[in-house]
Each structure stands twice: as C-alpha cells, then as structure tokens.
Amino acid sequence: MFNLIKGAKINGNIALKEEYEINGNRIYANISVENIRKVMEQFVKIEKGNKFCLFIEIPANIADESIIGMNEEGFYQLESKHMDVYYLDNITDEYIIYLLDKFGDILINDGLSHFGVLSQSGREIGKYKYNVIKAYTRDDLLPLINVFNSLDIPETDNLITAWDYFSQDNAGESERYEKDGKSIYDVVEILKAVGMYKYEQYEE
C-alpha cells in the first residue's frame, strides 16, 4: 500500500505505486512515506566519504509576494508564488543522520516544503510535494540507481505521480505539518544557529 505524507491529501480513488523512472541525468520516483527516510539514508551511505549540504525549500514570506486580493475562504491571492532555498553546507554523513533523527518527521511530512541532500560528488536527492523524489547527477547515474534498487523499488518507463491525476475539478491539498508545536519554519530558524543560510528565492 502506498502511503502519502501527512501534509498531503489527494482523491481517495487515486492509486499510486512505488517506482522510479530515469530521464537523462535525472531520476524521478514515487516513494511511500515510510520509505522516504530510507531513500535519504541509502543515498548518504552510498555517497559516504563526501561532504554534504542539506537543503530546505519553504514558501516565501507573504511580505515578499505581490498580493492581488483574497478569495472566498479568506486566503491571499498572489500574482505568483516563490520558494526560499536554504543551505547548510559542509556537513558529514553522520550529521545528516543526526538531523534526520531530530527533524526527519517534519522534513518528510510537511506538505508545503521540499528538502534533500547535495553531495560533493555532484549528485543530489530531494523530497518534493506528494511523495515525489527527484535525484540528479552530473555524471555517473549508477550510484543513484543503486539507491532505489537497494530498496527493491522497481524501474518503470512511465512513472505516474499524483500530479498526473490533478485537474481543476480534482486538485490535491498540501498543508503545513507540525510536531510538538514546531513546523518547517521553526526547523529553518533552529538550523540558522548552526550555519544554515538563505541561498536564493525562485518562482514556483
């Protein structure tokens, strides 16, 4: 059974499968929530010996957006939406695992944010909305393939994600996830104290 992260909701009739697809130097995958951390840990294990960077992408502050009105539910209507990208550089594989122990539940289950790991090798892996995992390499794809194969996740030529089912009449829902009163925004603030910094802002 495929389980969504706690911060995502989709139509109950949508059936997703765990699998991955190769597209050039990139891999896209559907990963059930209980296996997202395993994928991250396996990536770090395979990349051991390199330095790492943890990245977190969160929706930009409303003060940074152009507000064009409010909808019937009382939510702001924005001209466009932006994401703020934060980096925590030059950390070890052991520290990545420590951060997953401490903040993994929020990082994995938050429906509004993305997070992942960059390796000094040029390879990276990240969790995005609706359980989508994206991985990238500048050169050798085999280490990334091994991440998914080691967890018995099958390859496909036609990956179907939640996004393929969405329409105006059948939209998914993404929401903030909190644990013990802390959200992804609190995680970023905590990590700023140990060197996390804002790298860039981009339009979604």
Structural commentary:
The chain is α+β, with helices and mostly antiparallel strands and about 200 residues long. About 25% of the residues lie in helices and about 30% in strands. The chain is built from four helices and twelve strands, in the order E-E-E-H-E-E-E-E-H-E-E-E-H-E-H-E. It has helices spanning about 35-45, 95-110, 140-150, 185-190; strands at about 10, 20-25, 25-30, 50-60, 65-70, 75-80, 80-90, 115-120, 125, 130-135, 175, 195-204. The strands form three sheets. An eight-stranded antiparallel beta sheet has the order 2-3-10-9-8-4-7-12, with helices on one face. A two-stranded antiparallel sheet has the order 1-11. A hairpin with a 4-residue loop joins strand 9 and strand 10. Helix 1 runs antiparallel to helix 2. The longest helix is centred in the middle third of the chain and has 17 residues, at about 95-110. The chain is globular. It starts with 7 loop residues before the first strand and ends with a strand. About 25% of the residues are buried. The mean pLDDT is about 90.
